[in-house]
């Protein structure tokens, strides 16, 4: 058994006891070859539930805030996420977005499952915000299928300011791969990247039932002072 498999054998059953999970559509994840999982983002622990639900190992290029160990509860969450690795975390000062994209390409071109949150940050209010077009660039550059993923209930477990996780049911829904053929071979053009990203966000919204907002979550958070 791989290190990932061994960790999942421990983490997955424990997480299901604490947070009962309903997983749907896992059959949409291809058995082999590269695939991108594009998910909505409600909580810092979203990668944990995607990793538990997905039948294949998932790699994330994640912000270091997902692995914050400033409190006991966050320390437990962060270490559970790391145990489900390999999870790539950008900790180098000054690393550019393009370097992060290149790291992501390496994962996808290696035939692995790559997890990404196209909103770029957690939703400030539970709604689904505008996706960043780096997602479409990755998909159109590699030809990897994009499977939309919808998480529900995770925002109630450890919301900002809460120190002790609450016990809630969690839902993880995988959808059919999004048809990106209308934009095939056009990764270098801004408009096709925008349209392809919007198509993926529409698929996520259909799965999650979230209201879509035509703004970036980061901009809204900045206005709210979060």
What does this structure look like?
This protein has 226 residues and is of the alpha/beta class. Helices cover 38% and strands 14% of the residues. It has helices at residues 3-18, 46-53, 72-83, 97-109, 134-142, 190-208, 217-224, and strands spanning 21-24, 35-39, 58-62, 88-89, 113-116, 146-152, 170-174. Strands 1-7-6-2-5-3-4 form a seven-stranded mixed beta sheet, sandwiched between helices. Helix 1 (3-18) crosses helix 2 (46-53). The protein is globular. The mean pLDDT is 87.
Give a quick rundown of the structure:
The chain has about 230 residues and is α/β, with parallel strands linked by helices. It has helices spanning about 5-20, 45-55, 70-85, 95-110, 135-140, 190-210, 215-225, and strands at about 20-25, 35-40, 60, 90, 115, 145-150, 170-175.
Highlighted features:
226 residues, alpha/beta, seven-stranded mixed beta sheet, 14% strand, globular
